[in-house]
Amino acid sequence: MSLLILLSVILISLDHGASGVGSDEVSVMEGDSVTLNTGVNTTRQDDFRWYYNGIRIAQINGDINKTCTDVQCNEGTERFRDRLKLDHQTGSLTIMNITITDAGLYTLNIISNSRNSSRNSGKIFNVNVQGVSAAERDEVKKNKGESVTFDPPVARKPNDVMTWYFNETLIAEITGDQSKICTDVQCKERFRDRLKLDHQTGSLIIRNTTNTDSGVYQLQIIIINSSFSITRVKRFNLSVIAVPGSGDIL
């Protein structure tokens, strides 16, 4: 057991009655948003405290005046710069637009107070952040009339939610065993049955591309785990080029 994990266990166990300490490995990509779940609902008697490498970064309890995140918890500490979000119903912590320097141990300490006793429980999340190279931010060029396939960066799992956007407009979605393509009139008129969604992989296919298909295609993936969830965004910048000699304007 590493020193940081040992210190985190001690932190949770400082008060009497500590129990339920568990550890989860969380692997994310730079730029992802990740939610670390408590697995419970808050009550006015519960006190939820989140620590990053032993430093308190968030707290919530029945007294709204004692709720804090990042610099509010520790004056002069601005590591996360408004990128932390607390769920007031569950106490779960979301780290938005995660960076490599956010990697480390996130420790949850739950103090449950009752009339006659106090009980501690908690969780430990070991968060690893992988950098994203420029090569992974795809620039795609196609000749007019060709087909193009945009593949997700990860294999799709049954619980994942995948949503595709074109220039920030929703064009396709997979949720569980259900999928939808072009549910609004504007999308149907633009693509005219040229979109196809691979339900197994989540890949988006555009057939017989036209100049008006050029733009930014964005895939949002919500990866759901029992202890945490990850929101990942992948962007493809498509340029459709007129074929020389076709009579199209270059």
What does this structure look like?
- The chain has 250 residues and is mainly beta.
- It is built from 2 helices and 18 strands.
- The strands form 3 sheets. Strands 2, 6, 7, 10, 12, 13, 14, 17 and 18 form a 9-stranded mixed beta sheet that branches.
- Strand 3 (46-52) and strand 4 (55-61) form a beta hairpin.
- The N and C termini lie far apart (62 Å).
- Mean pLDDT is 82; it is low at 12-19.
Keywords:
250 residues, mainly beta, six-stranded mixed sheet, 2 helices, 7% helix
Secondary structure tally: strands: 18
Detail the poorly predicted runs: 12-19
From the spread of the alpha carbons, the general shape counts as elongated
Which series of helices and strands comes N to C?
HEEEEEEEEEEEEEEHEEEE
Overall mean pLDDT stands at 82
How far apart are the first and last residues' alpha carbons, in Å?
Answer: 62 Å
**Strand percentage:** over 45%
Helical percent range? under 10%
Measured on Cα atoms, how large is the radius of gyration?
Answer: 23 Å
Structural class based on helices, strands and sheet pairing: mainly beta
Q: What's the tally of helices?
A: 2
Q: Mind summarizing the main beta sheet?
A: 9 strands, mixed
Summarize, please.
The chain is mostly beta strands. The protein is built from two helices and 18 strands.
